[in-house]
Amino acid sequence: QLVESGGGLVQAGGSLRLSCVASGSGFRINVMGWYRQGPGKQRELVAILNRSGITNYADSVKGRFTISRDNPRNTVYLQMNSLKPEDTAVYYCNSAGTTPWGTPFNAWGQGTQVTVSS
Question: What's the longest Cα–Cα distance across the chain?
């Protein structure tokens, strides 16, 4: 289960920090990340981070957003700075890895709304 927090309303140029906690014992999480879906748009990658610390960012957020992870707490963060109105979207946490039974899993959070006003 993934539980997100930290969304809200902010003015352009402002900052927000999203958090996502993964629960469940015995699961090996290899990748955690954030996706977003704006009004009338498809869901898109924002940033992902694997267990080794390798990151991948969407071009539109490079230099403004930073993804980080607390492995022992199975928590991933997204620090969003210099927010723009086009960043307005529902942000979803994603986690992928292996279950205690050795099968792969790919889980999504419920989403948190981020609204950036101009």
Answer: 48
81 touches 92 (CB < 8 A)? no
State how beta strands 75-80 and 89-98 pair.
unpaired
Q: Is 25 helix (H, G, I), strand (E, B) or coil?
A: coil
Cα dihedral across residues 110, 41, 62, 47: positive or negative = positive
Element holding 10 (H helix, E strand): strand 8-11
Kindly state the tokens that stand for 55.
Answer: 């990151």
Q: Could you report the per-residue pLDDT of 36-62, keeping only the tens digit for each?
A: 999 999 999 999 999 899 999 999 999
**DSSP assignment, residue 36?**
E
| pLDDT the model gives residue 23 | 84
Return the residue matching tokens 């090996």.
Answer: 28
Rounded Cα distance, 76 and 52, in Å = 14
| Span 59-84, pLDDT tens digits | 999 999 999 998 888 899 999 999 99
